[in-house]
């Protein structure tokens, strides 16, 4: 527990509304969406400014306590879990959009701004913020940047990294860095901005960000296709990419669709059963694009790589089809899934998916497996559902025992054991499956440079 004098000093920094020690707050702010770790923070600090964040970190260095940065706590790797008496520093009171430049198409905001708020602001300017995912309504931009969030539009627009023009960051030493100043081109040496993107709060706390907004896409249209096999999914991708610039290409299994239809009361996209489904999105801004999509669909039917399909005829129908994919994670969360978030090069997806599926079928024979993911950029989400009769601890222990085989397959293809959820606590001990000893050594050196007293997010990413 914290020294009472430290609590007094924290209170002096953040004020009456900025410090919480009640049991409900400790439980709420001390966890993320993982279900493995029990939260046990000492206090919750909610600063309202970069200066207050700086003061908290400086106090942590002086008093010797540890800090867990907290955004929307929608992560799935334990990156925002405070389980060892840390002080959680939540950025939720720093939620202001500070500036918009119409000529630069850039937006500057505090780190606690909700992703959906940025998307809505962009839409009001007839522009578009392309990073999107199921947790957009509760995730915060600082957390998105700290984990280099991906989501459903990566195939067209890239990861969060591609949208970040500049950052304001407080390092683990309490020093304030203002990085890149919103510049598109800046060839003056090391771009420290990119060190903090994806660093999971281990090097510094992001307090402000400048983001690039882009042209809003025109008349987004969605297709959901039933396909007979894993390999057919990639053939469908190639067929449609040859004719269209896709803004999304997702997949999900029949089992995933079953839970969404059953638990959310949604309708199946069509009557024809299929073991797997592909969801495609494209800009339908001309008759030629729609005709190209329909021709690709007809070709798929003729080649037996498509079993059936439906195309949205309105934005309302497009949103309804998206719900079939976007609600999967939320729907299966009540069944205590063990999640794996894996990626390989797109050209390797079919081979990889089949190999992992065979391994899972052998090692998880008694468990239900749910597949979905952003297959267009090589990202697969493997979810194992806990049997109702099995204790949670036993279930997670069993799943962890199979991890090394799944990760060894990933390593053999030079893939990633965490495509977009981060490393956090959950995958920290498996980092060597995706990073070489030399890379990990340099990561440790950077951690020591920016956070020499190890006050930020201890135990996350690096052991």
From TrEMBL:
Residues 37-216 form the FAD-binding PCMH-type domain. Gene3D superfamilies: 3.30.465.10, 3.30.70.2190, 3.30.70.2740, Vanillyl-alcohol Oxidase, Chain A, domain 4. The keyword Hydrolase does not apply. One of its GO terms (molecular function) is oxidoreductase activity. Its cofactor is FAD. This is FAD/FMN-containing dehydrogenase. InterPro entries: FAD-bd_oxidored_4_C, FAD-bd_PCMH, FAD-bd_PCMH-like_sf, FAD-bd_PCMH_sub2, FAD-linked_Oxase-like_C, FAD-oxidored/transferase_4, Oxid_FAD_bind_N, Vanillyl_alc_oxidase_C-sub2. It comes from Thiothrix eikelboomii. Keywords: FAD, Flavoprotein, Oxidoreductase. It holds the Pfam family FAD-oxidase_C. Belongs to the FAD-binding oxidoreductase/transferase type 4 family. GO terms for biological process: respiratory electron transport chain. The keyword GTP-binding does not apply. Coiled coil: none annotated. Signal peptide: none annotated.
């Amino acid at each position: 527990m914290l020294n009472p004098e430290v609590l007094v000093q924290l209170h002096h920094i953040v004020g009456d509304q900025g410090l919480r020690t009640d049991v409900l707050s400790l439980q709420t702010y001390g966890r993320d969406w993982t279900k493995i770790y029990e939260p046990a923070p000492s206090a919750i600090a909610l600063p309202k400014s970069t200066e207050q964040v700086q003061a908290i970190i400086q106090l942590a260095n002086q008093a010797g306590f540890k800090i867990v940065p907290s955004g929307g706590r929608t992560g799935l790797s334990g990156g925002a879990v405070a389980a060892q008496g840390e002080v959680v520093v939540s950025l939720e009171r720093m939620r202001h959009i500070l500036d918009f430049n119409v000529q630069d198409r850039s937006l500057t905001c505090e780190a606690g701004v909700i992703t959906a708020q940025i998307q809505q602001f962009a839409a009001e300017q007839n522009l578009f913020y392309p990073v999107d995912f199921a947790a957009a309504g509760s995730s915060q931009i600082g957390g998105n940047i700290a984990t280099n969030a991906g989501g459903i539009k990566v195939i067209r627009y890239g990861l969060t990294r591609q949208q970040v023009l500049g950052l304001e960051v407080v390092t683990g030493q309490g020093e304030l860095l203002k990085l890149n100043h919103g510049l598109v081109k800046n060839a003056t040496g090391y771009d420290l901005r990119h060190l903090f993107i994806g660093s999971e709060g281990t090097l510094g706390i992001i307090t402000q960000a400048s983001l690039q907004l882009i042209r809003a896409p025109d008349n987004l249209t969605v297709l959901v296709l039933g396909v007979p096999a894993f390999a057919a999914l990639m053939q469908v991708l190639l067929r449609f990419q040859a004719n269209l610039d896709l803004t999304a290409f997702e997949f999900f299994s029949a089992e995933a669709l079953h839970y969404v239809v059953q638990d959310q009361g949604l309708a199946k996209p069509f009557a024809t059963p299929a073991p797997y489904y592909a969801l495609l999105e494209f800009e339908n801004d001309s008759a030629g694009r729609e005709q190209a999509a329909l021709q690709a669909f007809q070709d798929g039917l003729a080649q037996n790589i498509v079993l059936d399909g439906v195309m949205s005829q309105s934005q309302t129908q497009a949103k309804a089809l998206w719900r079939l994919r976007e609600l999967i994670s939320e729907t299966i969360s009540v069944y205590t899934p063990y999640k794996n978030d894996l990626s390989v090069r797109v050209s390797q997806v079919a081979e990889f998916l089949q190999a992992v599926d065979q391994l899972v079928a052998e090692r998880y024979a008694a468990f239900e497996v749910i597949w979905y993911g952003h297959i267009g950029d090589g990202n697969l989400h493997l979810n194992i559902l806990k049997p109702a009769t099995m204790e949670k601890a036993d279930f997670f222990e069993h799943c962890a025992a199979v991890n090394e085989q799944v990760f060894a397959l990933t390593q053999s293809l030079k893939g990633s054991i965490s495509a977009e959820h981060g490393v956090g606590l959950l995958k920290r001990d498996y980092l060597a499956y995706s990073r070489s000893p030399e890379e990990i050594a340099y990561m440790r050196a950077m951690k020591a440079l920016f956070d020499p007293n190890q006050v930020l997010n201890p135990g996350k990413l690096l052991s």
